[in-house]
Design a protein that fits this description.
The chain is mainly alpha-helical and about 90 residues long. The protein has one domain. Helix content is about 40%, strand content about 10%. The protein has four helices and two strands; from the N terminus they run αββααα. Strands 1-2 form a two-stranded antiparallel sheet. A hairpin with an 8-residue loop joins strand 1 and strand 2. The chain is globular, with a radius of gyration of 13 Å. The N and C termini lie far apart (about 30 Å). The relative contact order is 0.16. The mean pLDDT is about 90. This is HNH endonuclease.
């Protein structure tokens, strides 16, 4: 669902988002498809591929208590780094 508070993604951004959603979870490694998490709203180029639990889960999710993130010693920047590396390897 598109938020009213941010512009609609461009065609290039939509293609990038589709690639992100096709990846495995950048936090726990769960098989894709994933959800695209924006580190900052509307900045699609820095989106992360996250499974629903690592994205929206009350306990494990980046928008929740981030338990899985803490156990795996990950943060948004480390997952972004891994995501860029994987995209560049394709």
């Amino acid at each position: 669902m598109q938020s009213k508070n941010k512009p609609k993604p461009t065609v290039a951004e939509q293609q990038h988002i589709a690639r992100i959603k096709g990846m495995d979870c950048g936090c726990c490694g769960a098989a894709g498809p994933s959800e695209a998490h924006e580190i900052e709203q509307g900045m699609w180029w820095t989106s992360l591929p996250l499974c629903p639990d690592c994205h929206r889960g009350a306990f494990n999710g980046i928008h929740g208590q981030q338990r899985m993130w803490k156990v795996l010693k990950k943060d948004e920047m480390s997952v972004l780094n891994d995501t860029i590396r994987l995209l560049m390897e394709d």
